[in-house]
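Hey,
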Amino acid sequence: MKLGIMQPYFFPYIGYWQLISAVDEYVVFNDVNYINRGWINRNRILCQGRPMYINILLSKASQNKKINEIDVLQDERHTAKLLRTLHDCYHKAPHFGETFELVSDILASSAERRLDLYLLDIVQRVCGCLGITTPLVLSSEIPQKPDLRGEARIIDLCKTLGADEYYNAVGGQSLYNREHFQQEGISLRFLKTNPIVYRQFQNDFIANLSILDVMMFCSPEEIRGLLGSYTLL
């Protein structure tokens, strides 16, 4: 069984969705420390030919807290500003209507104040749009040995869930040792997104933006094709 494990992020880039699609089960790593100025509560979109940050507001966020210990700060003015920004930046994109409707519905209907559950809702809703059916599970709901960190905890999660293959994003190559996984009967693979280019109005292409950018310019069928555009190392 192939397993993927990653923190939840705010409308992450397409490589995140490739990882979910590539595995048999996916663990949303919600009981690890929050990272300031990372991708947990923000991402980038295209606006007037340049990357622009969008974000959600958090209540008393701290790197000393776990992701599932932080709340989203519900602010109607901030939500309205975010939707106006998306409209102004993408209203002429070919798939603006359906993508904007999805985001509007997510922001309006999510009653979750806990950050991890708020982001889980986003992951589930986008997976549904992209045709990804991989089961999702929260790491906080999995029985684990106490006081495990880093690689040791990942290996323990793999063993608990019966995984014999662990897939990680290519950026994790410096974090994990293949021999350590192999000693536990687990094959360690790294997923590297192939170069992906699609038309973004008349601009020079800007890679690694939020999945929202991909959804604004590409049809669901085109995106499903892009989900398989990766190399396993």
